[in-house]
Design brief:
mainly beta, 9-stranded mixed beta sheet, 5-stranded mixed beta sheet, 2 helices, globular
Length: about 260
């Protein structure tokens, strides 16, 4: 039987934020946090069984105190996230992050739960390669961002495999864009495009609100693709500034 789904506060990426020096009890330690978020997919639920978040630092595995539990990724979209780790580690270089999952991973489609197989994640953990220097006395926050739509693979015979696609971004050098589309029943896919880079999300089906995080500095086009019966909309010259959220006016979706 599936464990109770945990809904905690929190962003398919891994982000790092460096705050100013804090008064840690041990000057030789740095505070480290991991938060979980998701880019939406067309599923009712995607539940992952988080057992541990560990790091490889100076070629040594460090086990972090992790808020274990089953998390429905689709609860953490459009700027929402949840805290997985709040711990302290020594100074050094983090070369890899490992997200270890248990066996109770599921996806709900048409009101039916299907098991998600994740053999590699259950054994040694999903390996996320990074190269970040940790300085004692400072605080760091990493965001693990699943891209659900690309992370679930159907194998036939109603079988599914979780092959996580995780987006990596740094909040300190990236920005966000948010807005509202109307009417919400247009249920649009929203894509932020700059050159060959595309990051997307779906607007909330009730409020029409959306947020896309982890965007590099620059000018983007925003392509809004609603369901059948509504017209596509394109907004140009959306400026993204590191560390800031660009708020656009309400976008009114037209009918053909």
């Amino acid at each position: 039987m599936m464990k109770t789904i945990k809904f905690l506060f929190l962003a398919m990426g891994l982000a790092i934020i460096t705050y100013g020096c804090s008064d840690l009890s041990d000057a030789g330690q740095a505070n480290i946090q991991f938060r979980l978020t998701d880019m939406p997919g067309e599923y009712q639920q995607v539940n992952i069984d988080v057992q541990a978040v560990n790091v490889i630092m100076n070629d040594t595995l460090i086990e972090l105190s992790t808020n274990q539990g089953i998390y429905n990724l689709l609860e953490f979209v459009n700027g929402e996230d949840t805290l997985l780790v709040d711990d302290e580690i020594p100074g050094g270089v983090v070369s890899q992050v490992r997200l270890v999952l248990g066996e109770n991973n599921t996806v709900m489609i048409d009101d039916v739960f299907h098991d998600l197989k994740t053999p590699s994640a259950q054994q040694s953990g999903l390996k996320l390669n990074v190269h970040n220097e940790i300085i004692p006395g400072e605080s760091y926050a990493y965001v693990i961002d699943f891209i659900v739509e690309k992370s679930i693979v159907e194998t036939g015979n109603e079988g599914f495999i979780l092959k996580p696609v995780i987006r990596v971004f740094t909040k300190a050098i990236t920005g966000s864009v948010e807005g509202v589309v109307s009417p919400a029943e247009a249920k649009p896919l929203i894509m932020a495009i700059m050159a060959e880079d595309t990051t997307s999300t779906y607007a909330d089906t009730t409020s029409g609100y959306f947020m896309i995080r982890g965007l590099l500095e620059g000018d983007y086009s925003l392509e809004i693709q609603p369901v059948e019966g509504f017209k596509d909309t394109v907004l140009s010259d959306i400026s993204i500034v590191p560390g800031q959220t660009t708020d656009i006016d309400t976008v009114f979706i037209q009918v053909p």
